[in-house]
Design a protein that fits this description.
The chain has about 475 residues and is an alpha+beta fold. Helices cover about 65% and strands about 10% of the residues. Helix 8 crosses helix 9. The protein is elongated and about 190 Å long.
């Protein structure tokens, strides 16, 4: 009985020890460089669906026998070379983008679940190939949305776009992007090389321009210093001359006063003569003072003109050496444009002034006519009437009548007038009467100056009209 009890105790101890060993052997610790994926019966999610796996990083977990199992995902970073070639940019220019990406399995909650579902059981080389395919596709997509200038000059923006797109796709399979390194960018057309040459040429030209500007500023500063020196000297000279002139004026005033006193002492004798001499002397001193002042101003102006002209010549010479031919062309064009504009503006002002004067004259004529345009027109015609009559007279004055022979039988007509009288009457009627001429202008002659053409005929002497005697007239 005791032996049987002892055997039972031993068996129970062995079972307990074996159970303890089994329990201890199923408690697994996860290394820091790995993710332990527990799969099998691992419970349900919050919505009641079965969980595919449970991920543990940086801890330990008990693995139930039979119902659960586990595997490890390696967190070792993977370096992937992506020599992207002939990628089409936004400008339809194909470029090569050699780069290196460093990726690894993410330890972020949710992303680890994606890694457990899609990468568990894969070798590192297989994970690397899968990541390379994703990176190639996203890299081509980013290149297609950017210009070459942006890719080449704004590397931060390019890397940010690549990181954002690649990271989004890698998270879907449980990976994270650790680093992106673009070694160089080339294009088959040489566009990037041309951009580099353009930038270098621009930098060289900017440097040359900066040097020329500094040299010009130095020359201008030196010229300004010389100008200030000469202006200061001229001012000092003018001040000295002005002091001398003041002293001379005081001396002249003192001499004039002395002579005036002497003239007063001798005024009983030659007062009138001395007064005249004193006044003449005073006028002479005043004229001398004006002359000296004018000479001082002339000398000062001459010195200033010499300084300014010399400085302007130096400044102009330095500007002409520093400026480019393009600036000269622009200045000539502006000068020609200003000249054309000035000439056209002067012509326009002249035309405007002529029309304004004509309009003012017509307005004054209308005003003089009491505001009646018709009366104003008659006034203008009356003013020109002498010229109109002179033109009519000029039309016939050059007609020469060498001889006029009239054969008259002496018999009169029904009115008792001879042929000679009829001839003279026809001659008088052939001229336009003044009354009709004034009538065409809208005016009327005074009655005492004449009536219609019959009055003209009445004014002809009777002896010219003839009496029907039958005499010949020549």
């Amino acid at each position: 009985m005791q032996l049987y009890t002892l055997i039972l105790i031993c068996v129970a101890a062995v079972l307990v020890f074996s159970l303890l060993i089994l329990i201890l052997s199923r408690y697994k610790k996860c290394p820091s460089d790995k993710i332990m994926v527990i799969y099998g019966n691992v419970g349900n999610l919050a919505d009641g669906t079965a969980r595919s796996a449970r991920c543990v990083h940086g801890g330990a977990a008990f693995i139930w026998p039979v119902v659960q199992a586990y595997q490890f995902l390696d967190l070792t970073p993977l370096s992937i070379n992506t020599d992207l070639k002939n990628a089409l940019s936004k400008q339809n220019i194909r470029i090569d983008v050699p780069s290196r990406f460093t990726v690894g399995i993410s330890t972020e909650q949710g992303v680890m679940q994606n890694a457990a579902e899609r990468l568990l059981g894969l070798k590192l080389s297989e994970v690397q190939e899968l990541a390379r395919d994703i990176i190639f596709g996203q890299l081509r997509l980013v290149v297609a949305t950017m210009d070459i200038e942006e890719i080449n000059t704004d590397r931060d923006k390019f890397l940010e776009s690549v990181s954002r797109n690649v990271e989004t796709e890698l998270r879907k399979i449980g990976l994270r992007l650790i680093n992106v390194n673009v070694t160089d960018i080339n294009d088959e057309s040489g566009y990037i090389v041309a951009l580099g040459r353009e930038a270098a040429a621009k930098a060289i030209n900017d440097a040359k321009k900066s040097v020329a500007e500094r040299e010009r500023e130095g020359s201008i500063g030196e010229a300004n210093a010389h100008r200030d020196q000469r202006v200061s000297v001229a001012d000092a000279d003018s001040t000295a001359i002005e002091g001398e002139n003041d002293a001379k004026m005081k001396i002249a005033s003192s001499n004039a006063l002395l002579r005036e006193r002497q003239a007063e002492a001798n005024k009983l004798a030659v007062s009138a003569e001395k007064i005249q001499e004193a006044q003449a002397q005073e006028a002479s001193y005043a004229a001398q003072q004006i002359a000296e002042t004018a000479r001082a101003l002339r000398d000062k102006a001459t010195l200033e003109a010499d300084v300014i002209v010399e400085t302007e010549i130096k400044k102009r010479r330095m500007e002409l050496e520093a400026e480019a031919d393009a600036e000269q062309s622009r200045r000539r064009a502006r000068g020609e444009a200003d000249a054309i504009y000035a000439r056209m503006e002067a012509e326009a002002r002249g035309t405007q002034e002529l029309l304004t004067r004509q309009a003012d004259g017509l307005a004054k004529i209308v005003s003089a006519a009491g505001g009646d345009p018709a009366a104003a027109l008659r006034l203008m015609l009356a003013d020109k009437m002498e010229d109109l009559i002179r033109i009519q007279v000029e039309a016939i004055k050059n007609i020469k009548f060498d001889k006029v022979t009239v054969w008259d039988s002496g018999s009169g007509n029904a009115n008792g007038q001879s042929s000679t009288a009829n001839f003279l009457s026809g001659m008088m009627k052939s001229l336009p009467p003044l009354n009709e001429l004034f009538g065409m202008a809208g005016m009327q002659l005074p009655e005492f100056l004449g009536k219609p053409s019959d009055a003209v005929l009445d004014a002809v002497p009777d002896e010219l009209l003839g009496n029907g005697t039958g005499d010949d007239a020549e």
